[in-house]
Amino acid sequence: MANAVGSSALRSRATRICVWVALIVASDQITKSLIVATLQDREGQRLDFFEIGGQVIGFSLARNSGAAFSRLQGYTPVLAVGAIVIAVVLARTLRKSNDLATTVGLVMVLGGACGNLGDRFFRAPGFLRGHVVDFVQVGSFPLFNIADSCITIGAIVIAMRSFMLGNDEPEHGAETVVEGDTATNINAGETAHPGSES
Fold this sequence. Notes:
It is a single chain. This protein is α+β, with helices and mostly antiparallel strands. The protein has one domain (13-169). Helices cover 53% and strands 17% of the residues. It is built from 4 helices and 6 strands. A 3-stranded antiparallel beta sheet has the order 1-2-3. The longest helix is centred in the N-terminal third of the chain and has 38 residues, at 2-39.
């Protein structure tokens, strides 16, 4: 009975993770398709919408053969294979993660990676050589898309959570176990008996 309940909980968790990853991928691909349909005849032109903190926010269609934020141009097949490997590693890591914040971060990174990987698979100029559609313009910052944003935010969440968990570790020499008449400092390896001099 306990095993059945545990298996059901694992399936439910896996289903929720898949749904959230699929939502990220769908949001990324839908926005890219809308931008391509709207701006394909005006590629490279910038449409400004509003300004925040002195930075103009707008859309500008660009096709990126490199990595996030237009880095590593010209390495498309290598980046595509690397993205596949990373996606597999992230999926396996998600299966073992029991921490909510870490899971959220991993889901965001995996969803973003799969979103851009879809471009590598299905967009021109061909399979594993497809160029990623970037369109969000913030000031002079390189163009990016929803997938890039999810990858960046997810990585920050994972890094912050790892830092917090590292600070939560008990200090060395602080843990003591008492068994009967013997007190043992685990880290220091010292044992004290009642009545013994310090």
